[in-house]
Design a protein that fits this description.
By secondary structure, the protein is of the alpha+beta class. It has two helices and four strands. It starts with a strand and ends with a strand.
Length: 64
């Protein structure tokens, strides 16, 4: 599975990083970035939780 964060939508609040620190981190550009690619299926639940909690709807699964 692949996940992307839209840097134009992300406001850098850190919700995704707090939910899934093995997947996301806040970069120097003040928006989240995916640090694990591809993402193993065992992380699907936390990725989906991060997607659901993202206040700017900036995270998407792009490939299964």
């Amino acid at each position: 599975m692949r996940v992307v964060v839209d840097p134009d939508l992300c406001m850098g609040c850190g919700v995704c990083e707090s939910i899934a620190p093995d997947i996301f981190e806040l970069g120097d550009e003040l928006h989240a970035k995916v640090i694990l690619d591809p993402i193993q299926e065992k992380y699907r639940y936390v990725v989906e939780e991060a997607i659901a909690e993202c206040p700017e709807v900036a995270i998407q699964i792009t490939e299964e």
